[in-house]
Automatic annotation (TrEMBL), chains A, B:
Chief location category: cytoplasm
Binding positions for Mg(2+) per the UniProt entry: D223, D247, D251
Swiss-Prot/TrEMBL keywords: Amino-acid biosynthesis, Branched-chain amino acid biosynthesis, Cytoplasm, Leucine biosynthesis, Magnesium, Manganese, Metal-binding, NAD, Oxidoreductase
Taxonomic lineage: Bacteria, Bacillati, Bacillota, Bacilli, Bacillales
Coiled coil: none
Gene Ontology terms, MF aspect: 3-isopropylmalate dehydrogenase activity; magnesium ion binding; NAD binding
Family affiliation: Belongs to the isocitrate and isopropylmalate dehydrogenases family. LeuB type 1 subfamily.
Self-association and partners: Homodimer.
Binding site for substrate: R96, R106, R134, D223
Cofactor remark: Binds 1 Mg(2+) or Mn(2+) ion per subunit.
Name the record gives this protein: 3-isopropylmalate dehydrogenase
Gene Ontology CC annotation, any one: cytosol
Gene for this chain: leuB
EC number, as in UniProt: 1.1.1.85
């Protein structure tokens, strides 16, 4: 097969980890006889510096013409003082919106080889296998107004949590579809005892649930979910929630595996292209130090092979290689532990390639 | 001293745990020569059933005339289908608003005797001593509009995250005052890379920080905070955040001690009365089973003695008694562990009283 992949390294360690994904994809292409064409675009702070905007039109065009998008990370202290519309993060939010990436899928799995790097007890996390489905193009992230205002002559500010019912419908339905192929359970997270939007969310979930008699639906309040995620993570199969709750809970879930540096994500739309990015950020503190963990990005590339190109065997080859490298004791700094071999970003990439 | 205390047991296990606090306060009163007058009011589902509203006027009057308010818990499946304004939770939100309880203080401390009930490794939680300061009368909880609406003829819904700058100011300032009496560090949690309200929040925190050269201010994004809370909880001293983020993070923090059933809270205003409640809910599943943990409520009463009545020694007497009872191995079901003596709610109350 021939596939065109838009590559947006972004800022900070984005460039370093993206390099890993590309090298691994090259190796997979050679082994399985595929041709991957990579074309590079700018996003985030790098784009602000070069073109004065966090998401130049050329980048958008590149993405729309490609079969899939790989994204590193955006952001950094250099741009923190900019107004919101000129921040690197705005580039990420805009690309999500323009490509209509309504659902972000974040799998969290237990790695027995990493059980010693998690702050949780082994018996709590052993066997965890959870898929977070986060709504990605609505809610507080995009609602208007989002601005400074006045109330009785006093300074005030407003952000808006807005959803169309249909936006809830498509992401919750997707969660049910995914649950069907897994263990058949959906936990829908909301704050229905306070928010009107959550009450609508719950109604939509109930409606959809009627069409999936084979899937169990459970509702959970977001505060309780934040607790249950740590107390008893094995209870979760597919978790579906709105944008901001999903942002918080999926980062929280990352502690289960021990490091953000391990976690890939896929953002999907109705008609493609999909976008793949690690859930970690640009980590400016370790930028250029060859210390970042490339695994989240490499596993994001594996998700791309599976979900965008239907290359199941190829995806598994990458996932197996990662597992073997971990089993062999190779560790980047974030997952280092006593008695293991600590390696740099580029050494980790080499190990994965060699194992392929 | 003579003190008038409004007691609002509410729903579910609220009644059972409130009983414990009252008995313990009686015992303290006798020992230290104080007179506590308890007067009872209805709130939540119990009030809906009796008076058709989750917060009757009599209850509000009772609270306003009292020196402090003790609240059990509200809510239950019986009232889940009610519209939002007729739900038990609305009584809680309304009392917070009417008494102007702008800050909710939730201390989380490590109990060495309970280290085996936490899902976290002992070395992660050993020595944790954190105070969460949650804004309690603003944000998404109270912003208008909060309603169903239409967009281009499609069903939609909106909630509003609204803050006056002054509302941010008073709660962040309080966090700095509290940090000064502790380890001198404030972590301000926001989502300043996305929300305009968070950008204002950050500015206000910076402003206040200038007046507290002896306190270190650190900003943390809410997704990162949800992760750090578990990964490295010892880094936190005082954490201050807006209402919804605080709701999520403080329940999450409860896993550090092993059980929600251990955690008290105080909600304070500018001119009193303050309100004290456990952070757990009404737990309808164990209602009437004499299985609830009364310690969170008892420790809330201790916070009342300290913060509302200036009775430091009396508060410590309660806290010491609780510690001794735990050290002696008594455990309610939620904190039960192998080799310890499992007791009922009333037995736990008796043990604490006897130890006083
Ligand atoms: C960088 C930021 C805008 C983004 C978000 O909040 O969605 C990030 O935290 C994520 O989860 O992808
Ligand atoms: C019962 C509910 C409305 C309440 C809240 O969300 O504030 C509770 O979760 C709490 O934290 O006190």
């Amino acid at each position: 097969m021939k596939k065109r992949i838009a590559v947006l390294p972004g800022d900070g360690i984005g460039k370093e980890v993206v390099k890993g994904a590309i090298e691994v994809l090259q190796a997979v292409g050679e082994r399985f006889g595929h041709q991957f064409y990579f074309s590079y675009g700018k996003i985030g702070g790098t784009a602000i510096d070069a073109a004065g905007t966090p998401l130049p039109d050329e980048t958008m065009e590149l993405c729309k013409e490609s079969d899939a998008v790989l994204l590193g990370a955006v952001g950094g202290p250099k741009w923190d003082q900019q107004p919101l519309h000129l921040r690197p993060e705005r580039g990420l939010l805009k690309i999500r919106k323009e490509l209509n990436l309504y659902a972000n899928l974040r799998p969290t799995q237990y790695y027995s080889s990493l059980s010693d790097t998690s702050p949780l007890r082994k018996e709590v996390i052993e066997g965890v296998d959870m898929l977070m489905v986060r709504e990605l193009t609505g809610g507080l992230y995009f609602g208007k107004p989002s601005e400074r205002t006045q109330q009785n002559g006093e300074d005030a500010v407003v952000d808006t949590l807005f959803y169309q019912k249909e936006e809830m419908h498509r992401v919750i339905k997707l969660a049910f579809e995914l649950a069907r192929k897994r263990r058949g359970k959906v936990t829908s997270v909301d704050k229905a005892n306070v928010l009107e939007s959550s009450r609508m969310w719950r109604e939509v979930a109930e409606d959809i649930s009627n069409q999936y008699p084979d899937v169990v639906l459970e509702h959970m309040l977001v505060d309780n979910a934040a607790m249950q995620m740590i107390k008893n993570p094995k209870q979760f199969d597919v978790v579906v929630t709105e944008n901001m709750f999903g942002d918080i809970l999926s980062d929280e879930a990352s502690v289960l595996t021990g490091s953000l540096g391990m976690l890939p994500s896929a953002s999907i739309s109705e008609n493609g292209p999909y976008l793949y990015e690690p859930i970690h950020g640009s980590a400016p503190d370790i930028e250029g130090k060859n210390a970042a963990n490339p695994i989240a990005m490499i596993l994001s590339a594996a998700m791309m092979l599976r979900l965008s190109f239907g290359m199941e065997e190829e995806a598994e080859a990458i996932e197996n290689a990662v597992n073997q490298v971990l089993d062999a004791g190779y560790r980047t700094r974030d997952i280092a532990s006593f008695g293991k071999k600590q390696v740099s970003t580029s050494e980790m990439i080499e190990e994965v390639k060699a194992t392929l």
